Amino acid sequence: MQSLQPVPGSQYRSVHEALYKMVRHEGVLRPLKGINAMVAGAGPAHALYFSCYEKMKRVLSGTEHGHNNPLAHVIKQRLQVYNTPYKGVLDCFWRVLNTEGPRAFFRSYTTQMTMNIPFQSIHFMSYEFMQNQTNPERLFNPKAHIVSGAIAGAFAAAITTPLDVCKTLLNTQEQRTLTMANRPNINGLVTAFTTIYRIGGVSGYFRGLQARVMYQMPATAISWAVYEFFKHFFQHKNDPND
């Protein structure tokens, strides 16, 4: 949905239409393409996110009680583009490496970092705010953690959608250039921003907004629920008075 000049047959007007067309024309498993790359990058990314979150929360609160894998993102988005020529994660990796070189995997690295900083900042602040509203005692409350995580993820995703569109453009441009030989290469965040505006206007920055929010809500809800569960579990396990 974030492709600014999609190939024929991939023009999606809604999440429902996108899912329907993918399943009808490319098979039931088509929406799951790229999941291997995403899973491989999710583990270390989330471990780093929550480790930094806990550390910085303690540092900034003044009390002792108080991701990013660019290669995975590139491969995932290449596999998810309509009518992708790649058969799987390894096929995508080797073909991109051989035809575009190792730099292709880091083409959107600056954009990814630029997006992750505000996304995670908004995400964590929103979660803390929602916890104050739904769980002021800060007890282990799965329902409060799920609701807070979902709302925080949705809000952060919506705010940072323009940067996500830029990242998608940078990660997938070579594949789309094969069918659009007259299209120039796009290098860097500034060029991506201006290209999006020239082709799609202001609305171009928010392509795929609904899909991005729908993806982030369950993802962040599950992440926070699992994180809070294990935090609660290990705290009580290590508490000699418990």
TrEMBL record:
SUPFAM superfamilies: Mitochondrial carrier (SSF103506)
Sequence ranges of the Solcar repeats: 56-133, 140-233
Membrane topology, from the record: Multi-pass membrane protein
Signal peptide: none
Keyword Membrane among UniProt keywords: yes
Record's subcellular location: Mitochondrion inner membrane
Keywords in alphabetical order: Ion transport, Iron, Iron transport, Membrane, Mitochondrion, Mitochondrion inner membrane, Transmembrane, Transmembrane helix, Transport
Main location: mitochondrion
Family membership: Belongs to the mitochondrial carrier (TC 2.A.29) family.
Name of the molecule in the record: SLC25A37
Native source species: Cordylochernes scorpioides
Taxonomic classification: Eukaryota, Metazoa, Ecdysozoa, Arthropoda, Chelicerata
